[in-house]
Each structure stands twice: as structure tokens, then as C-alpha cells.
């Protein structure tokens, strides 16, 4: 019983620590420094959405014993699944570029060595971890170290803000110095950051890696329904720390380094060190997940053997796909592109690709041939349908808003 | 002929779609600094001044946190290095804008001076961070002056665009 509790607690803690990635870090800090907490409602909407679809894809993996993408190809055919693959792969690789850039930027904060020098080191370290370390160790270590981001929440409390004023910001629907289009552009970006497609592919493939069965459904549900919302609170804490310190100082976040300023003001060097550990862990964990997701989606679509539960020699193309993805990420970052700009674009393009990723999951979760008695109930289908409408609206609005606002100005 | 029609239609549709995607991508990736008229160009100048002011404020916070021992020197240095990059980018952004009218050109010049003037104090912060520990008064004063110059320039730009009353 106590061992079971330990497994559940570990899963929940890993889900909390693993929830935040470079997209969440950057977008929440940018939004907090420009709009205060007026966009917190988007984080809430995004967290409920990712809970709905991660729960569905986890259930598909647990009940069918197969990852979502394998079933998508079988159920929808190669053309529709191919479109899905193209969209999600493009966004996942872009997200990987952002995550590797995020690791490099976080390491720069601890060393003052230029992030461009850290990029190949980070990519090599990622490859070694993916090659040698067991799936569960890798996932739990990154997730638990990611909990160091709680430092942002600690900072908010230590700063002793005017809670009534922060509460008033939550109720605002704009910012005095920003246009309505910019407000909605960042709303779409925050939504894309919370619902990044790789998360569900990783979640369902991870379920297969860990051999989930129907007996694990309750654990999976707890991980999602407790871990993700608490992870969402970390996102809000990042926005709040920026809203309390950076917004009044007239600082609009355009680098990861600025995230440490409120933390330094609140808790000094020790808390800054804790938060930097969290930044490295969160971006590393997300980089591992996105690299694995590129391998998972390609291998599952093309019918290659895949998974960390197999030795690399037994899944060579799966491992080769991940190496190619890492090489592409390093190549892009070596062009001197700004990793923060890549991150901002990645969350917006995530929003564009969302319907293509999530519609098939809803279809499969309703197919009794795969799910038997575990097909979606009315509540899940209602929530899934409501979210599909939101996903389509966000996807359609993303590019026009990007053009009108010049990518948020 | 009739069998070819749908294929041709499909090809035409594909060509139109590809052209739209290419045009959209070009519009989205095009330089934001190039604007059609002076008012829009000066709004770009104002955006760059905001970025520069944000960089100065970042350097100021980093100096204060470092001076009180609340921020490790490596982190402060990385923070200020990024701020210097932002400030330099703002100078480049303003310097590459073209304006036609005399008033607009005057406002642009003042903005360029203020943005250029902000780079030095930010770079000086890195020197202060790398040197032996000393009071940050001079660096902070230089940053305050840079912030004031940026504020003045921004006010002049906004007056020229009619956003604030003369």
C-alpha cells in the first residue's frame, strides 16, 4: 500500500515538475511583464484542455496497450495520419529547438558563458541521456528537479505584493499600453504553450514504455488531474513574479535572464540558484520529451520498432530519428537565431497545429474497437467537443494575429 | 480533356495555395521596421525606444540586486549582456528606418541619439560587474540619465505622431 502511494506521489510530483517547459517559461514571463495577470484565465483554460486530452491519450495507451499515433494511422489511414504527422512533427522539432536553446540560456545564467557555446554541449548531453538512461529514471529525475521552479511561487510570497491589486489584474481584460490584437495574440500563444502537441504523444507513448494497463487508469488520471493543474500554478507564479517586479519597472521580458530579477529581489542568491536549477531541469526534461516525441511519432507512423524499453540496437531507426532531430536543433540554433524568438514562434505554431493533433485522439477515444467499455463518457465528449471549437478558433486566429501585431510587437 | 480538367483544377488550386502560403510567410517574416509612412515609421521608433528603455531598466535592476548581494555576478553579467544586445538592436532598428518629413526626421534623430546613448551605460555595467567591488552610484546615475533621455525622445516622437498633445 505504502509502495503504491509512493508511486502515485512520484507520478504527481513528476507531472508538476515536468509541466513547465521553455514555452511556458518565456510566454508566462512575457505576458506577466506586459499584461500583469490579466491573461491568467488562458492558463486555466489551457490546463483543463491538456488534462482532457492527456487523460484521453493515456487511457487509449492503457486500454489498447498501443500508443496514440499507431492507432491514428490505423484508424484514419495513411493520408490523414500523414497530415497529422507533418503538422505535429514540424511543431515538435520547432519546440525542440526552443528547448535546447532554453537549456543553453539557463546554463549561461549559471556560467556567463555565451549560450551559443552551450548548445552543442546540451545536445550531446541530451543524446547521451536518451541513449543510456532508463526511461523512468530520466522522466522522474527531470520532473523532480523541475520542482525547483517552485522558487517562483516562493518569490511571489516573499515579495509581499498587494494581493488585492494582483486580484484586480486577473479581472482586467486588457493592458493600458497594449492593443486588443496584442492581448489576443498572447492569449493564443499562452494557450498554445499550455497545450503543446508533443505532451500528449509523449504521455501516451510513455504509458506504453511503462507498460500501463487498465489497472493503471486511476494512477494516470491522478497524475493528470492533480499534477498538471499544480504545474499550471507554477506557470501563474512565473507570470505573477514578472507582474510584481518587472511590469512596474517598465521591463518587457525578451530574455530568460530577466526571469531571475524578481527572484533575486525576493530571495537573494540562494533562491536564484534554486530557480536556475529548475530552469535547466524544466528545459532539459522538455527537450528529452520533445526528442523522444519526434522518434515516437515517426516510428509509430512508419511502423518502425520504437521505445526506450528496447535496446538501441533493436530500435535503430527510432534512435536515428532522435539524433537527426537533435542535429537539426543544433543546426538551427547555430545560425545565431534568438532562442527566445524561436520559443515565441513555437508556441504560436503549436496553436495552429492543435486541431490536427487533438481531433484524432478524440476519434480514437470514442472507438469501441480499441477502447471496448472504456470509450469516452458524455462528460469527456462534451469537454472534448468544446475544446475542439476553442482549438479551431485559436488555430485560425493565430497567423492573422501574428501578422497584425508583428508577432506581439 | 474532361478527365484532365479536375487535375488541372487541382494543380491550379495547389499553385494558388502555395502562392498564398509563400506570400503569408514573407509578410510574416518581413522586417517590421519598414513602414509605409512617417507616422507608422515613428511608431516603430517608439517601439524601439520602449525596448531600449526596458534594457536600461533591466540593467538598473541587475545592478541594484548585485550591489546588495542578491544576484550572483555570473547571472548579473548574463542578464546585462542580454540587455546590451537589446539596446544595440534598438539602435540598429531606429537607424535603419527612413522618414520623409522634417519633423519626423528630427524626432528620429533625437530617438537615435537617446538609444545610442543608452548602450554605453549598459556596457559600463558589465565593466562594473567584472571589476573590483565598488559602490554602484556612478553606473546607476548614468543609467538614470539614459532613461531620462529615452523618455524625452519618446515624448517627442509621440508628439510628432500626434499621440500626445504638443
Automatic annotation (TrEMBL), chain A:
Subcellular location: Membrane
Keyword Ribonucleoprotein: no
Major site of localization recorded for this protein: membrane
Any one Pfam family match given in the protein's UniProt record, by short name: Nramp
Annotated coiled-coil segments of the chain: none
Keywords of the record: Membrane, Transmembrane, Transmembrane helix, Transport
TM ranges: 38-62, 83-105, 117-135, 142-163, 183-203, 224-251, 263-282, 318-335, 347-365, 386-404
Record membrane topology: Multi-pass membrane protein
UniProt-listed InterPro entries: NRAMP_fam (IPR001046)
Identification of the protein by name: Divalent metal cation transporter
From TrEMBL, chain B:
Signal among keywords: yes
UniProt entry keywords in alphabetical sequence: Signal
Signal sequence, start to end: 1-28
Descriptive protein name: Lipoprotein
Amino acid at each position: 500500500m505504502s509502495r503504491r502511494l509512493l508511486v502515485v506521489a512520484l507520478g504527481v510530483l513528476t507531472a508538476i515538475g515536468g509541466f513547465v517547459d521553455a514555452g511556458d517559461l518565456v510566454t508566462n514571463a512575457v505576458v506577466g511583464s506586459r499584461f500583469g495577470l490579466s491573461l491568467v484565465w488562458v492558463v486555466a483554460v489551457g490546463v483543463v484542455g491538456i488534462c482532457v486530452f492527456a487523460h484521453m491519450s493515456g487511457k487509449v495507451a492503457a486500454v489498447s496497450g498501443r500508443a496514440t499515433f499507431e492507432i491514428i494511422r490505423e484508424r484514419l489511414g495513411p493520408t490523414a495520419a500523414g497530415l497529422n504527422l507533418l503538422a505535429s512533427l514540424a511543431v515538435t522539432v520547432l519546440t525542440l529547438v526552443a528547448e535546447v536553446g532554453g537549456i543553453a540560456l539557463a546554463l549561461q545564467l549559471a556560467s556567463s558563458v555565451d549560450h551559443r557555446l552551450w548548445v552543442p554541449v546540451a545536445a550531446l548531453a541530451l543524446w547521451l541521456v536518451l541513449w543510456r538512461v532508463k526511461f523512468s529514471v530520466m522522466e522522474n529525475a527531470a520532473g523532480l528537479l523541475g520542482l525547483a521552479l517552485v522558487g517562483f511561487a516562493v518569490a511571489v510570497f516573499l515579495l509581499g505584493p498587494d494581493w488585492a491589486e494582483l486580484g484586480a489584474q486577473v479581472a482586467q481584460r486588457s493592458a493600458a499600453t497594449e492593443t486588443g490584437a496584442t492581448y489576443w495574440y498572447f492569449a493564443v500563444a499562452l494557450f498554445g504553450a499550455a497545450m503543446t502537441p508533443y505532451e500528449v504523444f509523449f504521455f501516451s507513448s510513455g504509458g506504453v514504455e511503462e507498460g500501463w494497463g487498465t489497472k493503471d487508469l486511476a494512477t494516470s488520471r491522478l497524475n493528470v488531474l492533480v499534477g498538471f493543474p499544480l504545474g499550471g500554478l507554477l506557470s501563474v507564479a512565473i507570470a505573477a513574479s514578472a507582474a510584481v517586479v518587472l511590469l512596474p519597472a517598465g521591463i518587457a521580458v525578451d530574455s530568460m535572464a530577466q526571469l531571475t530579477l524578481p527572484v533575486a529581489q525576493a530571495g537573494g542568491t540562494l533562491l536564484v540558484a534554486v530557480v536556475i536549477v529548475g530552469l535547466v531541469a524544466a528545459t532539459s526534461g522538455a527537450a528529452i520529451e520533445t526528442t523522444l516525441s519526434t522518434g515516437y511519432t515517426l516510428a509509430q507512423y512508419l511502423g518502425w520498432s520504437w521505445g526506450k524499453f528496447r535496446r538501441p540496437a533493436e530500435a535503430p531507426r527510432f534512435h536515428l530519428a532522435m539524433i537527426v532531430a537533435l542535429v537539426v536543433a543544433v543546426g538551427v540554433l547555430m545560425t545565431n537565431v534568438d532562442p527566445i524568438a524561436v520559443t515565441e514562434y513555437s508556441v504560436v505554431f503549436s496553436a495552429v497545429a492543435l486541431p490536427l493533433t487533438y481531433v484524432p485522439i478524440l476519434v480514437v477515444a470514442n472507438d469501441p474497437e480499441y477502447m471496448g467499455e472504456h470509450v469516452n463518457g458524455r462528460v469527456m465528449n462534451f469537454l472534448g467537443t468544446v475544446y475542439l471549437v476553442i482549438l479551431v478558433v485559436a488555430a485560425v486566429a493565430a497567423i492573422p494575429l501574428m501578422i497584425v501585431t508583428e508577432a506581439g510587437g | 480533356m474532361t478527365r484532365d480538367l479536375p487535375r488541372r483544377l487541382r494543380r491550379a488550386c495547389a499553385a494558388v495555395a502555395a502562392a498564398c502560403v509563400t506570400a503569408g510567410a514573407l509578410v510574416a517574416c518581413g522586417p517590421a521596421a519598414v513602414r509605409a509612412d512617417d507616422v507608422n515609421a515613428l511608431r516603430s521608433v517608439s517601439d524601439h525606444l520602449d525596448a531600449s528603455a526596458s534594457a536600461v531598466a533591466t540593467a538598473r535592476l541587475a545592478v541594484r540586486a548585485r550591489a546588495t548581494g542578491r544576484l550572483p555576478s555570473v547571472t548579473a553579467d548574463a542578464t546585462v549582456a542580454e540587455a546590451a544586445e537589446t539596446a544595440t538592436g534598438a539602435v540598429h532598428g531606429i537607424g535603419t528606418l527612413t522618414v520623409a518629413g522634417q519633423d519626423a526626421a528630427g524626432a528620429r534623430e533625437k530617438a537615435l541619439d537617446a538609444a545610442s546613448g543608452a548602450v554605453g551605460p549598459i556596457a559600463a555595467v558589465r565593466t562594473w560587474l567584472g571589476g573590483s567591488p565598488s559602490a554602484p552610484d556612478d553606473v546607476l546615475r548614468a543609467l538614470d540619465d539614459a532613461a531620462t533621455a529615452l523618455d524625452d525622445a519618446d515624448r517627442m516622437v509621440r508628439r510628432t505622431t500626434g499621440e500626445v498633445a504638443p
